[in-house]
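Page 42, continued from yesterday. The earlier attempt failed because a stray header line got pasted into the input along with the sequence. Redoing it now with the clean sequence only.
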Amino acid sequence: MLLKDRYLDRLGFTDHDARFFVQIPSQKNLDRLIEAHLEHITFDNLSQHGLPYPACLDVEKTAHKLLDQKRGGFCFELNGLFGELLQELGYTVKRVPAIVHAGPEVGFRHLASHLILIVSCGGSTNDEAYVVDVGFGEPAIHSLRYQTDLEQTTPEGMVSRLVLCKDDPQSVILEWLQPDGTPDGSWSQRLKWEVNHPGQPLANFQEGLDAVLEESSIFHKKLIVCRITRHEKITLAGMRLKRSTPRFGGEISQIEDLPSLEDVQRVLRDTFGVSNTEGLDLTKSTSAAPEMWTRM
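This time it went through. Structure tokens are written below.
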């Protein structure tokens, strides 16, 4: 079976007509694929907390994990495999390393530990380009036009913009508008990358993957699982389950502290669709410093 057939099954495109039309490259269909991906495939680091199938850059191993075993993963797996699907469907895809902003006290990290996709719907890089990301904890639910100084609102209510970096005009920064009690809210930096990066093969992201997998990484220290729709974000952070709805514009959050490993396994099965949780180890999460959970 081709990758796209397995992938479209996983994304819930079982209706014949929907399955046919979603394979035609266009921004509308690109957005349908992104939204389905965020709904059906979790952003998570379960393999760093006792579950099998560790993250790697091998396409077939990642396809087995995400599509056959119905697991999730993080950026190098999710965006890496999604890029393969888009190429099979006729999109032009560039894989670009990005640097994560770690909050106002830390700023941008030094190493590019994230992977984004720059996607064109035609067969040429001269076609209009879009920023695509299905591998972040809370990305925009649709594509973003690759154009600076343009406020873009996606269906879940997230407002994003791209701006050139003041200190380095060769880099572009992705920002999102965060409500902070003021009428206009405040812009928060999220990611930075080289504005005209030519893209690189997936195999070239090993250094970034190694950084995420090392013991000092926050991913190694706390369990995180996210599922996103345009109406709701569900997050499991350690032994705490959080539901936010609507996503933006006066969100209502329900937070539940799970009392046991068995309760966490039940939530993984019933809420996130992870059927096999044998070996799950919460030791690192339960011993993590409380401040590590402030951005769940």
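Notes: The longest helix spans residues 27-40.
Reminder to self: strip header lines before submitting.
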